[in-house]
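Please, structure for the following, as tokens.
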Amino acid sequence: MPLARSLSVTSLSGLEEWDEEFDLEDAVLFEIAWEVANKVGGIYTVIQTKARLTAEEWGENYFLVGPYVESNVRTQVELIEPTNPVLKRTIDKMNASGCKVYFGRWLIEGSPYVVLIDVAFTAWSLDRWKSELWELCDIGVPWFDREANDAVLFGFLTAWLLGEQNKYKTPPYVVAHFHEWLAGLGLVLCRHRQLPVATIFTTHATLLGRYLCAGNVDFYNNLAEFNVDKEAGDRQIYHRYCLERAAAHCAHVFTTVSQITAIEAEHLLKRKPDVVTPNGLNVKKFSAVHEFQNLHAQSKNRIQEFVRGHFYGHLDFNLDKCLFLFIAGRYEFSNKGADLFLEALARLNYLLRVNHSDVTVIAFFIMPARTNNFNVETLKGQAVRKQLWDTAQTVKERFGKKLYESLLVGQLPDVSKMLDKEDFTIMKRAIFATQRQCQPPICTHNMLEDSSDPILNCVRRIGLFNSSADRVKIIFHPEFLSSTSPLLPMDYEEFVRGCHLGVFPSYYEPWGYTPAECTVMGIPSISTNLSGFGCFMEEHIADPTAYGIYILDRRFRGVDESCNQLTSFLFQFCKQSRRQRIIQRNRTERLSDLLDWRYLGRYYISARHMALAKAFPDTYLYEPHDPTSTTGFRYPRPASVPPSPALSRHSSPRHSEAEDNDEDERYDEDLEAEKDRVNIRQPYSMPFKNKLSTVGQSREYNKTLFSTSLSS
């Protein structure tokens, strides 16, 4: 009997709605990013999923600002006349001065307003603006760096937009939130021109950090030792680094997405973030109330069909005792931890073999790389599987017809006559067609750089070639998943739901949307204490492992120790019974609302209120506190014992087959959820207040704080 979905965090009695007291009628919010209606990377997901909550908070006074990209606008944006009269005058004046600025609604949840600026149309001003940038900030941008040139154009145009908007003083208070270095120049110009704008700068990953980690540097143990100017210069990104660092120092409020990135920013950008703003998701999009376990079973069946075809001729393992693991993301072999995962799989294979385990692990690597087409052998496997299915259906229909005719005349069928020679011939031909002279392929596509591909070279080194003796099989799918694929016709969300475990042992991961997506879909995952997601879960959950969130230590352990720990996680997961995995998925899914923007959005609200208080200290009051503290809010351990076979007591599941049908020890999800609910404690309350009735000493404090931020 399928287990029902329990109540989630937002319905817990201890987690009350946060009392919002700031008056936003006299304020307007501009959120500026290169990825507004322009998908480039993860920042697009952040802005897109957060838009609904922000639009609900700010209403008609919320505007997203991004670049005009015609191909994206045609499919994502409805162009309309500006609804705000002040903004309409601003856009009309810019267009009359030689710019092209568009206004519309972004067709996503929340339908936020967008202001899209055509940077290419004003490219004639590039040299003049680059000269002005050099005179103001001593930052020179080389002519060949197209991305940096776009950042210059975008920065000057957004500063122009905000400057025109401020001339009308309606509404009187403007908040401008800039994301990443590509938008950061606009912030620097706003502060230099002394525009009355409360500014926020969010870095989702530092430029220098990403470059250093890509070069196999011992990054986290040497953060305090790097000569940042030299390192940036050696990598020819010094001008980009200067833009990023200037934006971080000029902002009233500097934020980043995780505690681990906050440490990185403090050393590389030389400013400690004021607020950590974790990335969230719209959990409603992923929630399938009472059905996520059923959806897992349906998606798993579709993956099993692919596996049947991929391993035809070598399908000598039980698919019902087969676990699907996966890693997905950008093809950064070391940064994403694919090297560690492969080494752990080799060690796991050894453990499963020496322990005579009947469990088979199939590990999927979903990382886009350069290919020229599907692998012929892989396509043939799916064709053979389909042919076998068609043969079985044909024989079934013939068998059914004979059975029907026998029953019609009132006779029991003679089983020996139900299948004739033709039926046996058809079946034998189908069986012979499944014979295979080679091992099932590792890669589903033809790689353009097969001999130098890091995943394939590592597979050759560890010797996991999908042989019959191996208990661990590997499938490398060097392309993003699509429901229109002739090979594995599933979209990413459906594929994740069908897997048993996501493995993301990243070395450099400022946040980590992949394990977060696993969590909201009820799929356990492995991440690290060097990822923002892993650090966030360690802060908020007393025992993450019990909830299916395995945190790998890559910060304080060597590579071999981390690999052994990862192998241990995988081996313990393989030892779980089916019932234990069901219980663990329920626990994992119960965390989903912890990652909902309705909870995590309060950190962005905190940053905006702090910026208003610093920029307009006579109007808004800000009481100092530690905005990154999570004291008093930690998920407790589940009421029952973590589902690890080594730690199980009588109250937790013990044996797979015996317990699956045991009615005497029924798992009561509602009871477990209720016990957890009692233990949830209130998160920290935001100390913001409405407009001042009295100012007193707090105003003096704010003026001091504001002057300090200007001097920095």
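Residues 1-20, 627-632, 641-665, 678-712 have pLDDT under 50 and may be disordered. The chain has 26 helices and 17 strands.
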